[in-house]
């Protein structure tokens, strides 16, 4: 459970954190704190809900979560500077969604030889417009939201059709199967826990996956919804097209997603909003990864390299997770094209270094 310190106690704790370099500490000045501390969002969310995790975990990178979609308006004096800081933008002017023409993408398999790219994945986060985020949700909200979500997921057709597995009451056999497939999520993140992300765990959470296991949906993990399209190999065209098809089918099934003009789609953590899109490959690049300027090489291409088990993990056997870095201030198709160009440049450089 999250701590129950008052907003003033959280502020005092943050001020006393000497080794804290979070965006919360940097941007929550005393005047902003005083301006926001007694406000409530339309969902009943408070500043304490937004800053609790960052105050209790001084080693946070961001340190701020939005308590609900309306927090991005009510607590904009804090959230807007954090968003600009994290996403490295001077002003907030996110374009309207544009997924491009999936019949004419101009890209397909980024590694036809199959020698370098192990797997490809594209995911987006979505939030129900009519529900708050974890800190303000009740158990009844979670159950109600899960029911509405599952009803819409049951309308998916063709290769997207599948089954929903709630975490509540899941058998050991099903847990083992989903863990082996790397589908299962858990309640082990202390930053999320302190933000209320695991309240009422595991009620209202579950996983939907298509029969071919190339499309899945995480329900009430960190965000209300995470749509994930993935497959082995490097065919980014197929993976992206499947995701766009799923998003469009689910939008037409009655799901209404939270968004804000200058910020795009809204998520629990401000680091994910905008397109919310993360396109990634697991790729074997032992030579390039050993180069001293590897990080700069990636930064210059607006891509991020990390270990295959997520942020802050090491590579295994020269395999890295390479993804687009930018989510805000560009369209979905631009984000994917940026990742595509980055991966192609990485492949070219690895081959050069290997003397191929």
TrEMBL record:
Keywords: ATP-binding, Kinase, Nucleotide-binding, Transferase. One of its GO terms (molecular function) is arginine kinase activity. SUPFAM superfamilies: Glutamine synthetase/guanido kinase, Guanido kinase N-terminal domain. It holds the Pfam family ATP-gua_Ptrans. Residues 6-88 form the Phosphagen kinase N-terminal domain. CDD domains: arginine_kinase_like. PROSITE patterns: PHOSPHAGEN_KINASE (PS00112), PHOSPHAGEN_KINASE_C (PS51510), PHOSPHAGEN_KINASE_N (PS51509). GO terms for cellular component: extracellular space. The keyword DNA repair does not apply. ATP binds at residues 119-123, 182, 226, 278-282, 306-311. It comes from the Eukaryota. Residues 116-353 form the Phosphagen kinase C-terminal domain. GO terms for biological process: phosphocreatine biosynthetic process. Belongs to the ATP:guanido phosphotransferase family. This is Arginine kinase. It comes from Patella caerulea (Rayed Mediterranean limpet).
